[in-house]
Amino acid sequence: MNSESVYSLSPGDMVYLFSRYRRRWLAPTLVCTTIALVYAFTMTRYWEARQTLVVRQEASTESNQPGKFANPDDLRTLQETILELAKSRQVVFATLQKVNDNRAPTDKEIEQFRKHQEVLPPNGAEFGKTEVFYMTVQDPSPTRAVHLLNILCDQLELRLGQLRDQQAQSLIADLEKQVELSMAAHKKETERLVQFEGQLGADLGELRALHSAFGGQSDMRQQLVQLEGEHRQVKTRLREAEQLLEWLTAAEQRPGQLVAMPSSLLNSQPALRRLKDGLVDAQLRTAQLSGSRSTDHPYVKAALMAEERIRHDLHDELQTSIQSASADLKLTRERYEANTKQLKDVEKRLGHLAEQRAEYSNRIAAVASSRAVLERARSRLSEVRATRAAVHSSSLVSRIDQPETGSHPIGPGRATVVLAGMLGGLLIGLGYFFLSVGPEAFPANPRQPSVHATPASHPDQNPQPPTNSAANIPPLPANAVSSLYAGMPLGEAMENASESTVAI
Questions:
Q1: Which residues have C-beta within 8 Å of that of residue 6, sequence separation ≥ 6?
Q2: C-alpha to C-alpha distances, 460 to 1, 2, 423, 457, 465, nearest whole angstrom
Q3: Per-residue pLDDT at 468 exceeds 50
Q4: How far apart are CA 230 and CA 417, in angstroms?
Q5: Which strand (E) or helix (H) includes residue 136?
Q6: How distant, in Å, are the alpha carbons of 174, 189, 376, 385 from that of 381?
Q7: What confidence category does residue 216 fall into, taking pLDDT thresholds of 50, 70 and 90?
Q8: At what angle do helices 414-436 and 490-503 cross, to 10 degrees?
Q9: Nearest CA to 468 among 442, 493, 450?
Q10: 311 close to 275: Cβ distance less than 8 angstroms
Q11: Do 120 and 51 meet the contact criterion of CB atoms below 8 Å apart?
Q12: How do residues 128-186 score in pLDDT, each as one tens digit?
């Protein structure tokens, strides 16, 4: 025979159980409420003082705008440095010592103060996004919290100034050594340049002109150009003198060739040129008279005599011109040789200077480089010294307004703590109640679920349809509930009871 039992609890039954076993849920509630009351009236409530701070960069840094950060990393680095300094032992120790009237704080007080101290970015942002950040201090007294925060900001600025001063001193020592080494290197390069320039002597100016990109044409270069021009002229005159001497020598052997001599060669012999022109004129006159008169005519004879006399004078002048042309040729040749020697000397000097130009340029570049390094080191040293001088007169941290506290302490209030304790105790009591009360404690239920039975000995008998009427359910004995849920866990029993209630 298969049977299924359904059992449910009415609100009255729940009230009965809560009333009968009230100690099981009321005792934890009272205990937790009492503990919450004791804690609420003995707990320490803290007031939070907040100070808004703004940081800036040092004005001596390389930035387009003095006092502004070149990139967010520099801002984040400075803010994280301030955060570490604010929690450092030296700053906290000095703050508590000054607040406690010069009494040295203990390690426990320092650790407790660090727990109630924070450095926060605005609106939950991260450091490096804005130059503004907050510093907070918590204390049971609002007045003391503000005082602690003021002293903490003072000590923070003092410690930050000391740190900047220490960094500046370290940088100054390094830069002074760098300046010393730069000066030694610059002095060495200068001495090498002076030694090299001393070897050049009179050609130093020419080498400087060659080295300079905007020096123009040097004196030696101009002299070279002038000598080259003179050399061409002297060479032309030497060629003319040689040709003149050759023509005059040939004319001495054959006087007729004198008439065919170019007039340009006779520019240096004006007398011979005049005689040549006179001979040509005499020959023309003789030819004219001979054409109109006989040979015995007195005019023709006179013209021939004049022509012969001119030839005789021309022959005598030709000897003198040959001697003069020989002397002139000798002088021109000597001048040509001297000019050629000067030209070669100038070209040799220029070639030597061209060979020395690379070395000279390298030494000048080395001196300029060492001078630039020295000037840069001196400039940085001056900046760091200025920064150190500004440490005691300026601060990188500026305060905005005065510290302020809220109108109420931070954290939950006493009423909230008591109410939370009461609700917590009630939940604990209810949990204990449902875990400790078993099915045997439930009251007897006059309702019994339907029982369906199909006798095996009468298969042809028609079963009666089940009914859900409460009047047809026979009453259960007092120990029915215990027999139904005997041996079941409390959770499974309550689940079965719930399913039975839904089925009913």
A1: 449, 499, 500, 501, 503, 504
A2: 17, 19, 62, 9, 15
A3: no
A4: 117
A5: strand 132-139
A6: 9, 22, 8, 6
A7: low
A8: 80
A9: 450
A10: no
A11: no
A12: 778 888 899 999 889 999 999 999 999 998 888 888 888 888 989 999 999 999 999 99
CB atoms within 10 A of CB 495: 12
CA atoms lying within 13 Å on the CB side of residue 128: 10
Among the listed residues 139, 123, 183, the one whose alpha carbon sits nearest the alpha carbon of residue 376? 183
Cβ–Cβ < 8 Å for 422, 29: yes
The C-alpha atoms of residue 363 and residue 150 are separated, in whole angstroms, by 61
Let me know how many helices (H) and strands (E) the chain has, helices first.
13, 4
Rounded (10°) CA dihedral 119, 123, 128, 133: -40
Contact 131, 56 (CB under 8 A): yes
> What's the rounded mean pLDDT across residues 409-420?
88
Which letter does DSSP use for residue 118 in this model? E
Tokens coding 379: 């400039």
Question: Which two structure tokens, joined as six digits, stand for 269?
Answer: 């012999």
Angle between helices 89-99 and 142-200 (to 10 degrees): 140
Which helix (H) or strand (E) is 97 found in, with range?
Answer: helix 89-99
Residue 293, both tokens? 């008169």
Q: Closest by alpha carbon to 60, among 495, 381, 443?
A: 381
| Residue 500 structure tokens | 């039975």
- Checking if the pLDDT of 362 tops 60, the result is yes
The full set of domains in the chain, from first to last, is 1-14+475-504 (no CATH), 60-177+391-400 (no CATH), 211-390 (1.10.287)
Phi-psi group of 373: left, alpha or beta (phi > 0 → left; psi -120 to 50 → alpha; rest → beta): alpha
The crossing angle, in degrees rounded to 10, of helices 219-253 and 298-391 is 170
User: 503 near 449, Cβ under 8 Å?
Assistant: yes
List all residues 6 or more positions away from 222 whose beta carbon is below 8 Å from its beta carbon: none
CA 496 to chain centroid, in Å, comes to 75
Q: How far apart are the first and last CA of the chain?
A: 21
Q: Is the pLDDT of residue 303 over 80?
A: no
Question: From residue 112, how far is each of 88, 93, 191 by CA, in Å?
Answer: 13, 12, 66
The answer to whether the CB of 187 falls within 8 A of the CB of 370 is no
Distances (CA, A) of 466 to 5, 262, 460, 502: 14, 165, 18, 17
> How far is residue 438's CA from residue 433's CA, in Å, rounded to a whole number?
10
Cα separation, 86 vs 158, whole angstroms: 11
Sign of torsion over alpha carbons 472, 476, 482, 484: negative
> What are residue 139's DSSP bridge partners?
47
Comparison of pLDDT for 399 and 253, the residue scoring more: 399
The residue ranking higher by pLDDT, 398 or 255, is 398
d(CA 115, CA 109) in angstroms, rounded, equals 10
DSSP structure class, residue 463: P
